[in-house]
Amino acid sequence: MTPVPDSVDDRPPIRGGWVGRQWPLLLVLGGSLLSFAVVALDHFRLGCLGFGASVLFAALARAVLPARRVGLLVVRSRAFDALVLFLMAVSVLVLAVVVPRGA
To answer: Is residue 73 included in any domain, yes or no?
Structure first.
């Protein structure tokens, strides 16, 4: 008798290995790092808008892509993750617009 594996996954493997599975996270991290660099170059509003856009992309990716495609952006349920990321993105974008220019 041959042992039966716990779960049978007959879906084709994701191409590209680790990067193929984590590209949404890598894109969000890259956008965030670029945004922090823009803030460090004394462009607060533009950097915060870029960071908010990166988080908004994370929310969209979490809401649209299946869990096996979105990689480490999966924390809890799809609805919870997308809602928290969306609220965070909107908060950062609103604060970036509301902060006075002299600050």
So the answer is: yes
Question: Which amino acid makes up residue 74?
Answer: V
How high is the pLDDT of residue 61? 93
| pLDDT tens track for 9-26 | 556 566 666 666 788 899
Question: Do the domain assignments include residue 67?
Answer: yes
Structural domain of 71: 42-103
Instruction: Evaluate if residue 97 carries a pLDDT over 70.
Output: yes
> What is the rounded CA–CA span in Å between residue 11 and residue 59?
25
